[in-house]
Design goal:
The structure is a homodimer. Chain A is mostly helical. Chain A is 76% helix and 3% strand. In chain A, helix 7 packs antiparallel against helix 8 and helix 7 packs across helix 11.
Chain lengths: 267, 267
Amino acid sequence: MFWTRFFSGIGLVLIALFTIIFGGNILFATLLLISLIGLSELYKVFGIANKSLGIVGYLAGLTYYVFLYTMNQEKFLMLFIAYLIVLMVFYVFSYPKYNALHVIASFFGLFYVGIMLSFVYQARMLENGIYLVWLIFICSWGCDTFAYCVGMLFGKHKLAPKLSPKKSIEGAIGGILGAALLGGLYGFIIKDYLQGADNIVLSFAVICGIGGAISQVGDLAASAIKRNYDIKDYGNLIPGHGGILDRFDSVIFTAPIIYYLAVYLIK
Amino acid sequence: MFWTRFFSGIGLVLIALFTIIFGGNILFATLLLISLIGLSELYKVFGIANKSLGIVGYLAGLTYYVFLYTMNQEKFLMLFIAYLIVLMVFYVFSYPKYNALHVIASFFGLFYVGIMLSFVYQARMLENGIYLVWLIFICSWGCDTFAYCVGMLFGKHKLAPKLSPKKSIEGAIGGILGAALLGGLYGFIIKDYLQGADNIVLSFAVICGIGGAISQVGDLAASAIKRNYDIKDYGNLIPGHGGILDRFDSVIFTAPIIYYLAVYLIK
C-alpha cells in the first residue's frame, strides 16, 4: 500500500509538472478532464452521476470551459441561468423521479468542482503565471505537511473534534505558518524572474498563509461531505489516493484564492 | 377570500406599475427587498432561514445587488466563490450542525431567487427598457390566464400528471400561443415608440411565446419544491396569494429569459 501510494504520488507530481509548465491547451484539456471526473465523483454521492440531472451538469461544465477558453466570460451568468432552467425542466417533467436536492446538488457541482478547479488554468495564464501558479500547490501541500508535523509534535486542542478528531488547532496554525514560510522562501528564490513586481517575498508569504488556511477548509469540507454520506473515498482513480476529489480537495479551494490574491496583491 | 385576493391583487399591480414606471433606485430597492424576503421563504423550506448558512445567503444576495448597482459585474464570479467558501467555513466548524444539503441549498438560493429576480431591474434599465420590461409580466400572467381558459375548454391530455394533475398539454399550448398573441398585440400598440428596432410585432410575439413556455416551467418548479417538502404555500405575506415565491414563481424564470431574448433579438 505504501509503495502504491508512493509511486502514484510521483506519477501525479510528474503529470502536474508537465502540464503546468507547458500550460496552454495541454493544461486546459487536463483540467477539463479532471473537472468532469471530479464532477462525476460528486454526482455519484448524490445519486445523479448517470442520470439526466448529472448529464446536464457535465454539459454545463463543458460549456463553462468553452466560454473560459473563448474569453466569453461575460456570458457566465447566462450559462448559470440556462443551467438552472434546464435542470428545472428535467425536474418537473420527470417528477417525482428527482427531488429538489438532486437539482440543487447538480447546480452546486459546477461551482464546487468545475469552476474552482479551472482557476489552476486561469492562474497559469496570468502574466507571470508560470511562477504564480505554483503557489496553489505550495500552500495546499505545504500546509498539509506542516500541519501534520506540528500537530504530531505539539497538538493538544482539537480543531474540529466531531469531524476530524485527529486535527489540532496547533497543527492548523503550524500549517498556515509553514505555508507562509515556504511561500516566502519560494518568493526569495524566484524574485528576480518576476517582472515589475515589488515585495515578492512578503506578498508570497501572505498569499500562501491565507491559502494555507483556506486549504484546510477545503480538506475539512471534503471530509464533511463524505461523512454526511457515509463514504470513505470519492473514488479509486488514483491508486492509494482515492479519487480526484480526495486528492484535490484543498486545491479546489486554494486555486481561486491564490488567483484572486495574486491579481489584487501582486503589482 | 375572493375579495381579499382581489384587492391584494390590485395592490400588487399598483406597486408593480409604480415601481416599474419609475425604475431606477425605487425599482432597485423594491427588488432587493422582494429578493431577500423570497430568499428567507426558500430558506425556511430548507430549515436555514434564521441560521448562519441563511445569513451568509442574505449577505451574498445583498453583495450581488451592490455589485449589480455599481456595475461591478466582472466580480460576480468572485462573489460566488467567496460565498461558497464562507458557507464551507460555517459547515465544517459547526459540524455536525448542518449537512451538505443545507450548504448547497443556501448557495442555490442566491441564483434561484436573488439573481433571477434582479433581471426585472436589468430589463428595465436596458435602452427602451421602459417598454421591454412589461414583456416579463405579459408573458407570465398572460400565459397563466390563457393556459387556464384553454385548459378548461379543451384540456384532455395531462401535462405533468403526478405533479399538477389539473394541468393539460392543450392548456400549456394555449398559454404559449396566448402569450405570443398578447406580446404581438403589445408590440403593435407600442411599435412607434421603440427607437431603432425592426419587426417589433413578430419579435415580441416570439419572445412572449418562449417566455410563456418558460413561465410554466417556473410555475411547475415552485410546485415541485413545495410538494417535495409537503408545504402548501411558501409564505403568507400577500393576503390570498401566499408568499413572494408563490406569486413570483413564473416571473423568477421569465425575467432573465425576456432580458436575454430582448438583448439578442431586438436590434
